[in-house]
Each structure stands twice: as structure tokens, then as C-alpha cells.
Amino acid sequence: MKQFLRILFFLLPVAAAGQKFNVEKSMITFFSDAAIEDISAKNEKTNSIFNSETGEIAFSIPIKEFKFEKSLMQEHFNEKYMDSEKYPKSTFQGKLTGFDAKKTGSQDCRAQGKLFIHGITKDIDVPGTLEMTGGKVLMKSKFIVKLQDYEIAIPKLLWQNIAEQVEVSIDFIFKPYEK
User: Fold this and answer.
1) pTM score > 0.70 for this model?
2) What's the domain count of the chain?
3) I want to staple 21 with a disulfide (CB 3.0 to 4.6 A). Which of 75, 130, 170, 174 is the partner?
């Protein structure tokens, strides 16, 4: 995974030093509101890079690092739904727009790019916020992922246990890239 990010990092164009950032702390959560049982999980092992000059961003999420309240949920998630042996990571590569890298305080922005989940790549355009503060970059986003868009099947017997869509929340803290 680190090799993936290194390759992407050098593909992102940079105009001057101090415009590249790598993730210092990451939290990706998802929530599924179903009739019988809500399901939620979190992942703090995401790697990401961001270029504040161009707005380009990329991240890689190791699927097996999602942690659930119940171990059986985690097992089913990896084996029956996400096929994490076959698709060990989800990735996003795109661009943030609508922000000013020289401005402090929270700013609304949009992330546009390609989201890869479960062997399927889809174009997405999602809202978020970005804040440049103390030399760091704080990013947040909340959006919906429809399982059928990524060919994640819900067994007919479990249709009341698993929602057809999940709410994904992203919360990253970036620090300046150091060689």
C-alpha cells in the first residue's frame, strides 16, 4: 500500500515546496441503517496524499482494517460482502475544488474523482470541508454509497439486516510532506 501512495505522490504535479501533504491521522467510518440492526465500522489505517496547489488527492483504504462492534459482523463484511481477499483495498483518486489554500478557517469544497470499491470504479462528486490551520490541513466529508453501484450483493435472507446504501464519513488530518 505504501508503494501505491509513493507512486501516486510523485505523479501529482507540484509547483513549490510545502504544497504536498500526507495524512497524519485518518478516520473513515460507515453506517448502515437497516430495519433490524444498525451496522457501523471504522478504519484508522487509511493512507492519503494531498497537493494543496493543484487540489489533487489520493487515498487507499485497507478493507480488512474496518473494525466492527461484533467480530461476526467483521467476518461477514470481509468474506461475504467485500471479498477482501480478492479486493484488499478501496481507493480514491481525484481533485478537490472550491477552496483557497491561502485562506484559513473552514471552507466548503467538493471532491471529484474515481472511487474504486469491490472491483468497480465509479466517478463521484461529493461535498466536504477543508481547513488550513497551523500548517496542517483538516478535511471532512459525508456521502452515500449505494451497494448495488459496486456490485455488493445483499443475500435475500438478510435484506432487513443490511441497508441498500451506507453513509460514509471521512475525517483526515494532513501534515506537510517530509522526505
Assistant:
1) yes
2) 1
3) 174
